[in-house]
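Technical annex, item 7. During the second reporting period the consortium partners agreed on a shared format for inverse folding records so that results from different sites could be compared directly. Each record opens with the tokenized structure and is followed by the designed sequence. A conforming record, contributed by the partner at site C, is shown below for reference.
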């Protein structure tokens, strides 16, 4: 029987480690300190004026809290805001997944939890699995028959759908020389050169490494192969205009009669399939190259590279469901040809 409360227990363990290590106040679901609620003179906004009749109370709006991004109206309502975890942390907008960022959001959003709740029926930046399958089959079909110049535009869309990277990141990567590319790895073999998607996960610089000692990872990179027909196009560097990609997406939207189709839907293709259909949210982060170096190493221990490969190949099989038999054989044979770097790698961390 699967333990349904495993995620909650892991979160409690992580929070307990933080409270003990930094000697901070525990913040529970009720968002109150576990310590005694002592009267704080620091945030007292009362003063008494001498008057002939009786003392009058006047409220003085104190200075805004130093380590607090809460609006002024909220500070007025809260005389004694609770000391939350990571109160001095100011995350950058480039941090994609971060436990500190989650605590920062908790600090700033818990007062507004019962306001401004708009429950949309679905995520407008994601398509359904059927729409992604039809889109991929159509793009792969056109990719094999258009001219070489137009094929580059479709190569950008295919590479974004197969790698989970943003369209703009793919355009920037393909405009670089072979030696300057970051996540497009080039391997020279005896028969022919090949390209693969290189994913590097770095948790050795974790801020909480003093809580749970973990060995430094030397096997923090794994590679996923690409179709041979796509490798032939991306072998040399070339530049693609973003407007050309938008025009192709507008044409595909009309052809497939999709309600919406933009760069954001292409970016979220692989992540959506792995997370929603295969129920592997952690693998979705690692395969699509999400920066997870700030997250707890508790989530990234004892992960085998072969399990990541199986997840990726299962996603490819789902995406190619509506392709022709020849195209399915060409795309699904990637599962038989593992890259050299993963051949002898068993444990990921």
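Designed sequence (site C submission):
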């Amino acid at each position: 029987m699967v333990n349904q409360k495993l995620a909650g227990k892991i979160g409690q363990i992580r929070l307990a480690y933080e409270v003990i290590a930094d000697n901070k106040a525990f913040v529970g679901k009720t968002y109150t300190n576990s310590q005694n609620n002592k009267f704080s003179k620091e945030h007292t906004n009362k003063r008494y004026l001498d008057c002939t009749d009786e003392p009058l109370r006047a409220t003085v709006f104190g200075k805004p809290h130093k380590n607090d991004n809460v609006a002024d109206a909220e500070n007025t309502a809260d005389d004694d805001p609770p000391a939350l975890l990571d109160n001095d942390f100011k995350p950058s907008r480039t941090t994609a997944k971060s436990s500190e960022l989650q605590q920062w959001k908790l600090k700033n959003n818990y007062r507004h939890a019962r306001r401004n709740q708009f429950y949309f029926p679905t995520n407008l930046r994601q398509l359904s699995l059927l729409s992604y399958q039809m889109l991929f089959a159509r793009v792969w079909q056109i990719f094999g028959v258009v001219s070489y110049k137009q094929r580059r535009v479709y190569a950008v869309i295919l590479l974004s759908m197969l790698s989970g990277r943003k369209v703009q990141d793919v355009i920037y990567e393909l405009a670089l020389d072979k030696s300057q590319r970051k996540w497009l790895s080039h391997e020279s073999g005896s028969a022919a050169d090949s390209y693969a998607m290189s994913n590097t996960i770095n948790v050795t610089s974790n801020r909480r490494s003093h809580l749970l000692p973990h060995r430094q990872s030397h096997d923090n990179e794994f590679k996923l192969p690409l179709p041979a027909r796509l490798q032939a196009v991306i072998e040399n560097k070339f530049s693609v205009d973003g407007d050309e990609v938008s025009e192709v997406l507008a044409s595909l939207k009309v052809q497939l009669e999709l309600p919406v189709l933009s760069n954001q839907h292409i970016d979220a293709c692989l992540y959506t399939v792995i997370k929603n259909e295969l129920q592997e949210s952690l693998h979705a982060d690692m395969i699509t190259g999400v920066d997870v170096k700030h997250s707890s190493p508790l989530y990234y221990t004892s992960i085998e590279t072969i399990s990541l490969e199986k997840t990726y190949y299962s996603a490819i099989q789902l995406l190619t469901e509506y392709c022709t038999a020849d195209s399915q054989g060409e795309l699904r044979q990637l599962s038989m040809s593992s890259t050299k770097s993963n051949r002898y790698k068993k444990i990921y961390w």
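Residues 14-34+43-112 form one domain. The two ends are 27 Å apart (CA to CA). All partners now use this format for quarterly exchanges.
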